[in-house]
């Protein structure tokens, strides 16, 4: 999906109940895999910040970056409405094109975004550079699928083989990699309801 389409869908994004239900499952699984979530976090590709809002009590600060201006506008309004400006920081930032030069994070998390990123290894290395030694990375995304999840113009990844993703994470200086099934996405495809399985992966940056 192009940035223009994300911009167009931003105002209606939260009206899709699947987005909230999936985020609830991801948040629950994150807290199950790491009950001691705390400190300073970054959400990559935060969209309208549904997941960050579910996790906000776990962190002192969450920086929420996205490269869709309209998504950032929506999450900014939500943060202001919730009076969470001190803890939640929406930001337009394209990590595909820029290195993060700010303070490092204790946790980086991302949901259903990695399959849109052309160079997986490059972004994993950037995640590692953003984390403190021993910091944790959480990736929620699709298992490998047959290419029917997205429309024809999609040019990203058709989900991920976890063995291959794990190899890339080790190369990017992550250790202690674990994962489990966390959610299912339902979509109508050719008049048939299809189910696409999603995982949550947790990895730790080398100390």
From TrEMBL:
GO terms for biological process: methylation. GO terms for molecular function: methyltransferase activity. Keywords: Methyltransferase, Transferase. It holds the Pfam family Methyltransf_23. The keyword Methyltransferase applies. SUPFAM superfamilies: S-adenosyl-L-methionine-dependent methyltransferases. It comes from the Bacteria. This is Methyltransferase family protein. The lineage of its organism: Bacteria, Pseudomonadati, Bacteroidota, Bacteroidia, Marinilabiliales.
